[in-house]
Amino acid sequence: MELTFKVNGHPERLELEGHETLLDVLRDDLNLTGTKEGCREGECGACTVLVNGRAVDSCIYAAMAAQDMEIETVEGLATSDGLNSLQNAFAESGGVQCGFCTPGFLMMLTALLDKYPHPDRVQVRDALSGNICRCTGYAQIEEAVERCIRQRTIE
Ligand code: FES
Ligand code: FES
User: Fold this and answer.
1) Domains of the chain (ranges plus CATH)?
2) Which of 3, 34, 73, 93 has its CA 20 to 30 A from that of 26?
3) How far is CA 62 from CA 35, 56, 57, 67, 78, in A?
């Protein structure tokens, strides 16, 4: 089966057997290993990517369902100037320790901030309810969101 879609703005065409998940295709066929495989059951959020702007767990998303869609992964966040404001805010707020969960948090928050540029803390917590971090703690991640919003407001 042929899958054609765009990943981080680049057109891609792949021959698949049909049973692959979007996570498999991103990591194994396109070598985009920034998207992490954690539980592989839709429970931890480590594999979060955007499909036409909507955050999905790519470990339980059939690759063929992405036909003609636009996919965005963590590799697509940085700009030619370097890390984007959300990534910088994570670094400056201490929102990263081992970093395994970070791509998933970044993609979930990208979807949230695209829809609600000024979310309140309840909206942030709701959005992140499916993302698990085992080491940083969520306070620094919430601080990173607030830092990012402040930064984007003065840009
Ligand atoms: S690896 Fe997909 S939700 Fe955990
Ligand atoms: S930074 Fe280690 S799991 Fe979140």
Assistant:
1) 2-76 (3.10.20.30), 85-154 (1.10.150.120)
2) 93
3) 15, 11, 10, 10, 26
